[in-house]
């Protein structure tokens, strides 16, 4: 059997979920894989549970490391994948699960269509599909990149995708970014690709109940600034693979992506330290003085209201949306 698959799973305190995921993988209709389980300093029973799986099946490889976040864990897995003879890389989060034919379907999609990346759909818990299209579509690198920067049909999470391994040869997740780090990374694989498939196939189940809700949960300033850092790294990319006209379009889309998240996260800033103020002011000035706000393409009425209010009264914007967050969390 050829076309071996490298499956990378970062793990942190996933004792409630990891055995179920491993069982999902053992039951897959496609069996030619290696699973890299990267235990990122878990303090629960995750390691003990994984040990039992590893002892029974040598396709499961456990690596223990000190806690460094999902980026560092995924990077360890990518490094290990380049030591085997696999053709493809696929990421799974430890608290999610997959359909029994997920590996088979994803490999079939990438091979049958002769593409470098497959962007599939996914379920939110057991709810209907999200971010899916009616018909599969093959796009070139530029069009795929435009789609991921639009952040609608193609999402930037590392899961529910399959990649030709060679795309990751010089790409790793940033260690100084721990919020929206996927967004700051996945787009780079598209730049290196030639063709991508946007598919309506859905076999990945995303565990929303265990994920971060930025509406309900208070985010630290450190977390917010890290997210802006992730998105600003995209704005700072020169996109030199593409033509001048294409670069202009990509820059505009990158600024809009940054601005959308800036407007969402700015009201969540609370009592910043002097060091935090410096970085917050840097991004604030980018939005205002370098006119990111004007290049920001609003997609709905709510976005237009936020844009106008921020342009005219940024401090009032902060106060009103902060008040809105408090009211939402009190419900």
Model description:
The protein is of the alpha/beta class and about 325 residues long. The chain is about 45% helix and about 15% strand. It is built from twelve helices and ten strands. The chain has helices at about 20-25, 45-55, 70-80, 100-110, 140-150, 185-190, 220-235, 245-265, 275-290, 290-295, 300-310, 315-330; strands spanning about 5-10, 35-40, 60-65, 90, 95-100, 115-125, 130, 135-140, 160-165, 195-205. Strands 1, 2, 3, 4, 5, 6, 7, 8, 9 and 10 form a ten-stranded mixed sheet that branches. Helix 5 runs parallel beside helix 8. The longest helix has 22 residues, at about 245-265. It starts with a strand and ends with a helix.
Rg over CA atoms, rounded to whole Å, is 20 Å
Quote the distance from N terminus to C terminus.
Answer: 54 Å
Question: What is the averaged pLDDT score?
Answer: 91
Give start-end ranges of low-pLDDT stretches. Answer: 211-216
Major beta sheet summary: 10 strands, mixed
Provide the succession of SSEs.
EHEHEHEEHEEEHEHEHHHHHH
**Helical/strand content category:** alpha/beta
Beta-strand share of residues: 15-25%
The proportion of residues forming helix, as a percent range, comes to: 40-55%
Strand tally is 10
The general outline is globular
| Total helical segments | 12
Keywords:
331 residues, alpha/beta, 10-stranded mixed sheet
A few lines on this structure:
Helix content is 45%, strand content 17%.
Topology summary:
Layout (H helix, E strand, L loop, with lengths): L4 E7 L6 H9 L6 E8 L5 H11 L3 E6 L4 H12 L6 E4 L5 E2 L3 H11 L4 E8 L4 E2 L6 E4 H10 L10 E4 L18 H10 L2 E12 L14 H15 L8 H22 L8 H16 L2 H4 L5 H12 L1 H17 L1
Parallel strand pairs: 1-2, 1-4, 2-3, 6-10
Antiparallel strand pairs: 4-9, 5-10, 6-7, 6-9, 8-10
Helix pairs in contact: 5-6, 5-8, 7-8, 7-9, 11-12
């Amino acid at each position: 059997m050829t076309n071996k698959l490298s499956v990378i799973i970062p793990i942190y305190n996933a004792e409630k979920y990891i055995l179920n995921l491993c069982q999902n993988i053992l039951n897959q209709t496609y069996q030619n894989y290696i699973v890299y389980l990267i235990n990122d300093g878990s303090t629960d029973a995750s390691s003990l549970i994984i040990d039992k799986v590893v002892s029974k099946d040598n396709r499961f490889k456990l690596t223990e490391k000190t806690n460094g976040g999902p980026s560092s864990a995924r990077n360890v897995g990518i490094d290990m994948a380049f030591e085997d003879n696999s053709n493809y890389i696929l990421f799974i989060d430890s608290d999610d699960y997959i359909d029994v034919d997920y590996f088979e379907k994803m490999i079939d999609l990438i091979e049958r269509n002769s593409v470098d990346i497959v962007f599939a759909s996914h379920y939110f818990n057991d709810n209907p599909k999200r971010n899916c299209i009616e018909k599969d579509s093959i796009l070139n690198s530029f069009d795929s990149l435009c789609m991921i920067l639009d952040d609608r049909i193609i999402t930037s999470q590392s899961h529910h995708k399959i990649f030709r391994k060679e795309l990751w040869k010089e790409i790793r997740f940033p260690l100084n970014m721990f919020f929206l780090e996927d967004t700051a990374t996945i787009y780079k694989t598209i730049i290196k690709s030639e063709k991508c498939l946007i598919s309506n196939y859905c076999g990945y189940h995303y565990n929303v109940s265990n994920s971060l809700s930025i509406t309900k949960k208070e985010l630290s300033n450190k977390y917010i600034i890290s997210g802006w850092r992730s998105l600003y790294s995209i704005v700072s990319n020169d996109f030199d693979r593409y033509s001048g006209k294409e670069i202009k379009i990509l820059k505009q889309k990158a600024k809009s992506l940054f601005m959308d998240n800036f407007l969402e996260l700015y009201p969540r800033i609370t009592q910043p330290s002097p060091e935090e103020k410096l970085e917050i002011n840097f991004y604030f000035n980018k939005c205002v003085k370098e006119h990111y706000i004007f290049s920001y393409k609003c997609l709905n009425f709510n976005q237009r209201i936020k844009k106008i209010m921020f342009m005219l009264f940024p401090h009032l914007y902060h106060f009103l949306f902060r008040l809105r967050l408090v009211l939402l969390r009190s419900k």
